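Morning!

As promised:
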Amino acid sequence: MPVARVHRISADSPDDTAGLRQVIAAGQLDPAGITAIFGKTEGNGLVNDFSRGLAVRALTGLLEETLGYERAAQVCLVMSGGTEGGMAPHWTVFERQEGAAGASPALAIGKAHTPALAPEQLGRRAQVELVAEGVRAAMRDAAIDDPADVHFVQIKCPLLTAQRIAAADARGATVATRDTLKSMGLSRAASALGIGLALGEIDGSRITDAAIGSDWSLWSGRASTSAGIELMGHEIVVLGVSAAWSGPLAIDHAVMADGLDIEPVRAALARLGLDVPGQLPPSQRDRIVAVLAKAEASHDGRLRGHRHTMTDDSDISATRHARAFVAGSLGGLIGHAEIYVSGGAEHQGPDGGGPVAVIVSRAG
Amino acid sequence: MPVARVHRISADSPDDTAGLRQVIAAGQLDPAGITAIFGKTEGNGLVNDFSRGLAVRALTGLLEETLGYERAAQVCLVMSGGTEGGMAPHWTVFERQEGAAGASPALAIGKAHTPALAPEQLGRRAQVELVAEGVRAAMRDAAIDDPADVHFVQIKCPLLTAQRIAAADARGATVATRDTLKSMGLSRAASALGIGLALGEIDGSRITDAAIGSDWSLWSGRASTSAGIELMGHEIVVLGVSAAWSGPLAIDHAVMADGLDIEPVRAALARLGLDVPGQLPPSQRDRIVAVLAKAEASHDGRLRGHRHTMTDDSDISATRHARAFVAGSLGGLIGHAEIYVSGGAEHQGPDGGGPVAVIVSRAG
Amino acid sequence: MPVARVHRISADSPDDTAGLRQVIAAGQLDPAGITAIFGKTEGNGLVNDFSRGLAVRALTGLLEETLGYERAAQVCLVMSGGTEGGMAPHWTVFERQEGAAGASPALAIGKAHTPALAPEQLGRRAQVELVAEGVRAAMRDAAIDDPADVHFVQIKCPLLTAQRIAAADARGATVATRDTLKSMGLSRAASALGIGLALGEIDGSRITDAAIGSDWSLWSGRASTSAGIELMGHEIVVLGVSAAWSGPLAIDHAVMADGLDIEPVRAALARLGLDVPGQLPPSQRDRIVAVLAKAEASHDGRLRGHRHTMTDDSDISATRHARAFVAGSLGGLIGHAEIYVSGGAEHQGPDGGGPVAVIVSRAG
Amino acid sequence: MPVARVHRISADSPDDTAGLRQVIAAGQLDPAGITAIFGKTEGNGLVNDFSRGLAVRALTGLLEETLGYERAAQVCLVMSGGTEGGMAPHWTVFERQEGAAGASPALAIGKAHTPALAPEQLGRRAQVELVAEGVRAAMRDAAIDDPADVHFVQIKCPLLTAQRIAAADARGATVATRDTLKSMGLSRAASALGIGLALGEIDGSRITDAAIGSDWSLWSGRASTSAGIELMGHEIVVLGVSAAWSGPLAIDHAVMADGLDIEPVRAALARLGLDVPGQLPPSQRDRIVAVLAKAEASHDGRLRGHRHTMTDDSDISATRHARAFVAGSLGGLIGHAEIYVSGGAEHQGPDGGGPVAVIVSRAG
C-alpha cells in the first residue's frame, strides 16, 4: 500500500542540497520514492529570478547522481521564487513509498506533466484545457476519484520572455500580452482556471479568453500556480486524501478571503487535531509538516475597507508585497516562517485571498 | 483637566488632507488642540522618500491656514514612510483638550523639540544625550513623573545626505558614516538609546559611540524612532498614563521578541479589556484607536531558528521587508492593517523584535 | 515682438525653488513672462513618484506668491520623474517677453491645456484626438503655421490609479488596462500619436485603439510625453521656430534610432553652429541651453543586434534603465548630464529610439 | 611562442553555453587553451545575484565535460553581475595557444589564485597584501616584467554574508563591516589597492585599514575588481603586452576621470589604430574585440559640477545606476553595448571614474 512522506528541509542558498543529501545518507528518505520537490527560493519570484534555475540545476544534479538521468527527469521540481518578509528558503520533498498498511485514508500524491505550450496559447483557453487534462491525469496517479478529496494542486507553468514573444511574432502568431511580467500573471491565471475546471469548482462555459486574468469571481480554492522561465509545459502535483494510501500524514485546506483572514486556517488546523486559541505552541508547531499558501494583492486596492498601496508601487512588485504580508499573518498563527507562500494568486482563491493547505503528522 | 483624544484618519495620497478637514468641519476635532500628527505615508521609508516631505507640506498648509504660522509650527509632525504589505496609509492625530474631569488616570501626551544636530554628531553619544534631554522635557509636558507610566516615545530624527556630509567635510569634521542609507540607522539607533537612557531602561555608561548601532543588547521597550530628510533636530512625542489627565482612552504596550511574537501584544490587549483567543472580532476591533509598532530584521539572519533573507536582499531594503511582515503578523491579530508599523528598530526592542503600543477606547 | 528666453536652473531637491527665486531676485527672469517649467525630478518616474507632486506644490507656491493664483494657474508645469545614471535634477524655465526686434526667426513657445479625460478614454483614440486638438491650439499660441517649424512638443498626460479604475468600474465603464504602470505607457502612447497626427507625421486612419501602444511603426519625431498622477487633462508646450519671434535662441532636433544613435544629434548641433568631432569642449558646451530627449528600451529586446535585458528586469523598470543609458550616451556627446531625458518613448521616435531637441545660444 | 586569442560570445541567459559550444565545435577555439572567462551576467551585481552562480555552474559543467575536473578547475571564471541600460550579457573567453611566432609584442595573459580569506581579513590590509602577491604571480605567468606593460587586472574577490559574519562572530573575530552590501565595496577596495601596490601606482605606506574604502586619492588606473558570493579567495587575471607573446591582438587602456570622460578612451583607440572623430563606424567597430571598464558614482554626489542622485537612491543601488550610465557613454563612442562595464570602482580610477581597457585586432 502506498505511503506518502513529506520532508521539510532548510536551504542555505538556492543551490544548497546538503540537507537533502544528509537525510538520504541517514536513511530517512529513500530517493527512489521522490515524486516532487517544492522549493521556496530567495529570488524575486518574477521574470529575472535566477534562483529558481540555479535550484533546479542543483537538485537535478543530485537526483541524476542518485537516480540516473531517466528517473531524475520524472521528478516534478516546482521552484517558487520569493522569500520576502521573514520567510525561510526551504525544500519540501514528497516521497512515495510502499509500506505496510497503516492508518488510512491518508495523504496521497499524484503527478503529471503536460506537453509544451506555444507562446501564443499562454494565458488563453487552450492553456486552461491543457491544464485540466493534466490535473485529471495527476488525480488518477494519486488514486483519488472524488475531486472533494483533493486539497491542493501545485502547478509550475511557463512565462513569456522578449525572445519567446519574438518567436511568436516571427510565425505571425499573436501573444496574449507583450509585457513579460504580465505574462506570468496570465499563465498562473489560466493554470488556476484549469484546476478549477478539473475539480468542478468553476462552470467551464464561463472560462473565456476574456475572463482569464480579469473575471475574479472565477476561482479555485485549491489551486496554486507559479510561473517560471525554465519550462514551456506544466508540472502538476496533486495532494489529497485517498483510502488507497496509508501513513502518518493528514492534509486539509482553507481559503483565506484576504491576506489577514487566518481564522479559516485556524479552523483547518483544528480539524486536523491542532486546536489552539493563539499561536501554535512549540509542541504542536512541531507536528506541522508543511504549510502551502498563495498570496495576492486585491485588485480593487482595498483590504478590509482600507486602501493598500501594493498595486501602485512601481519599485516593488505587488506579488513581493503580498508574500511578505501573508508570511507574517500565517507565521503569526503557525509560530514560524518556514512556510511556502507563493505569490500571484490569480483565480486561486477569491480576489486578494488564497488557498492554504496544511500537512500535519497525526498525534502519536 | 486635560483630555487626550486620538483620531485615526485614512489618507488617499501623501498629501490627502480631506479626511482631516472633514473631522474638523464636523466639529469632531478642535484644531487648536492638535499636538502631534503621526503619518504612515507610502514612500520607501528610506533616503529618497519624498512622500514624507509632500505630506509635511500638505499638513503644514492645512495647519497654517487653520491655526496661523506660529501655532502650526508647534505641532509635531512625524511622518514614517513605508506602507509595505497591506498596510494602509493614514494619519493619527493627537489632540489635547480641556474637559470635565472624567475617568482618570488616562492617556497623556507630551512633546518637545530639540535643537539641530551637526552632521558629525549624528549617530554618536552627543545625539543620545540631546535626545534624552528632550524626552525628559516631553514627560514634563505630559505631567508624567514615573518613567514606568510612559508607554511609547516617538521620535523623528535626521539623516545624512551627500550634501550634508560634504558640509561636514568642508568644516573638517568627520561624520559617523558616509553611507546615506546607513546614516538613517545610526540616527534611529542613537535616538532610541536616548529614550532608553531617559526612561532608565539602559545603563548610561554602556552607551558609547561604538555601542551605537552595534551592541544590540542595549534597547528600550518603548522607543520608536524614524529618520527623515526634512529636519536636522528631533521631534519628540511621549505617550503614557497620567493621573493628571482624564478621558476615554487607555494605552499599554508590549515588546515583540521577533516579528512573529504576537502573544505579548495579545496579552496587552487583554490588560486593556480586549481578551480574545483568535483575531479580534469586528466589535472589539472597533475599540482599537491606534496600534504603533516597530519592526526590524534580526542581524544574525535568523528567525526562530530558520534563515531569513531580508538582510541579503540588495533589491529591497530589509526595513521594507520587515514592515510588510510585521504588518501581517500584527494585522492577523488585530483584524485590519491600518496600523503604524515603522521600520528600522535599532535598539528599539530586542534585535529582530520591537515595541508595540496600543491605544483603545474604554468599553462603554 | 515676442522674445523667448530659457533658463536652466539646478535643483537641490524636488522642492528646491531657491535657484529660481535667485534669478528672479537678480532681475534675470521676469516671472510675469513664465509660460512653462519643465522639471527633471529625482523620483522613479513611475506610478508612485511623489517627487513630481512635491515639485509641483513647491513651484506653484512660488508662482502664486509672485504672480497671484489666476496667473500662476496658467503656467504649464511638466515634471518628468527619474534622474537615473548621472542625470542632474533641474528646472528648465521658459519665458516669453516682449522685446525690441532682434535676430529673427527665433525660438518660439506656445502652450495649451486640454479638458480632463475620463479614465476609460485613456490610451484610446479619444485621447489621441483630444491631444491633436491641443497641439494645434499650442501652435497657434506660438505663431507657428508650418508643422515643419515645430521641433519639440512636450505633453504631460494622466495615468490610471487603482482608485480611478474603481471609479470607472463604478460607472460600468471599461478601462484600457487595469495595470497602473501600463496605463502610463498607454497614455504616453496616445498623446504621442496625437502629436504625430497634428504635425502630419502619421496617417490618422492608421491610429486605431488597437494600434495605440502596439504598432511601433507609427511615431512622431518631435513628441515627448510624460505621465503623471497629478492631473487628468493634458498640459501641452510647443517649441519651434517662428518669424514672428526674435531673440538669441535657436532650436533644432534629431531622431535617435536607438539609445546609442548620437550621430544625428551631433549633426543637429552642427546645424546650430556647434560643429565638433568628439565631446563638446567647455566653451561650446556653455552655449547649450537645454537638451530635451526621450529614451526607451526597444520592444524586441535587441540593441544593434545584441540582447538587452531592460524589459526582462522585474526589479527595475525598463524606463529607468533606458533613461540612465541615454543620459550616458547623450552626456558623452554634450559633456555634462544636466539634461532632460524622459522615459517611456512609446510612438516617440522609432521603437527603442527617441527624439532629441537642442536649444542653443547663437554665437556672440 | 604563446599566442593570446580572445572570443566575445553573446549569452541568451546566465546559463547559456550554446555559443561557446559552437565556437569549440567549429574549431575556432581549442578548449585546452582556455585560461579565463569573463562574464557579464544579468543579475543585480549585488549580494543576492544568483545569475553569477548559475553562470559558474553552467560554464563549469561545460569545461568539466570538455577538459576533465582537474583542468577545468584551473580556468579563472570571473562573473560580473549587472547588465543595466542597454548592456548585452556575454562571455569573453581568453585562450592561450602555442603558435608560430607572428607579430610581437602582443597581448599576453597571466593568472593566479590566492588562498581563502578569513571573513575578518576582508576589507583590511591583510587582503591588500594577499592580492598584491597574487598579481605578481599572475604577471610572472604572463611573462610581463615591467608593470607599465600591464593594461588591466581583473580580480574576483569575496563578500560577507550574514552567515559568514556569524562564523567570524563565533570565533570572536571582528569583521570590517556587518553590512553585507558594504562588504562588497570593501572587498573590491582592498583588492584594487592590492593591484595598485603590485603595479607601483600607490605608495604602500599609505594603504592602512582606515584608508581602504575611504581615501579615494589612492587608486590604480588598471584595476577591475568584482565581488561575488561564490568564493572566499581571489581569482586574478592580468592582461598586458609582452615580447614573449605574439599574435593578432593588441591592448591599451585609458582612465576615465568621471562617467562622461570618454575622450581618453578615444585617444586609446587612436593609439591602437582606430582614429575616428565620432562614433566608430561599423568597419572599425568590428575590430573591437573587448571593452573592459569600471564604473562608479562619485562620492561627493557631483558630476562635472552638477548634482547626481545615484547615492541617494534607496531603490536602486548606485552601482547599478553607474553601470547603466557608463554603458551609455562608452557605447556612444564604440557603437554597441556588448561591453563589460563592471560596477563598484573603489580605488579603481579616480573617485567617480574608472579604468577602461580595449583589446583590438590589428588591422589586416
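Residues 98 and 145 of chain A are 20 Å apart (CA to CA).

Hope this helps with the figure draft.
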